[in-house]
Amino acid sequence: MKYNKTTMTKLINQQRELHDELKRLKAEMGLEKNLAIKALYHSFVANSGKYMEEYKEFDRPRK
User: Fold this and answer.
1) CB of 4 within 8 A of CB of 59?
2) Per-residue pLDDT tens digits for 1-32
3) 63 within some domain
C-alpha cells in the first residue's frame, strides 16, 4: 500500500481522532501540514494500522 496525500486527507476529514492528532502534531512538534499528514499515515495506517481498512476503502477506484 502506498501513501497518497489526497486519500489520507479524506480519511483525516472523516475520522475525528486523526483530525485532532493532526492538529496536535502541528502545534506541539511544529510540523508543517504535509509532514504531519505523512506522519499520521505511518502511525495509524501503514503496517496494519488502526485505520488501514478505512484507508483502503478511500483508495479503491470508483466505478
Assistant:
1) yes
2) 799 999 999 999 999 999 999 999 999 999 99
3) no
